[in-house]
Amino acid sequence: MIVTRTARGSRTVARTGERIDWRCLARRGMLHSECESIDHLRLAPGTEFALTGRSGLESVWLVVDGAGELFDGGPRPRPITAGDAVLTPEERRIRLRGGDDGLELLWIAVLPEPVSARLPGRKPRL
Length: 126
Prior knowledge:
By secondary structure, the chain is mostly beta strands.
């Protein structure tokens, strides 16, 4: 079993000085599933997060605390708040922005069904 804490993640500072705290809680090898990773993010107020370089994954974003905005290509951003879940299909790009008190999220990235259906079966081992 691997246990990790969210208190001491890596810190990213955007070009404009905003802060993103990020900690990976689990990766596929730890999970014995088609889940790629589970990450914990904290966005400082006004900080924008646009993920790139993770193609081939579907995502679930769970808003743990705070409020903010979701930019998904629509005419205007959508408000998101604690308790919301955002599902993003493969190859869909989104941006998130922390609100006045920041935004805390869990990000669960999974392999899409066409990919996971081609993988061999796995059994967890002790």
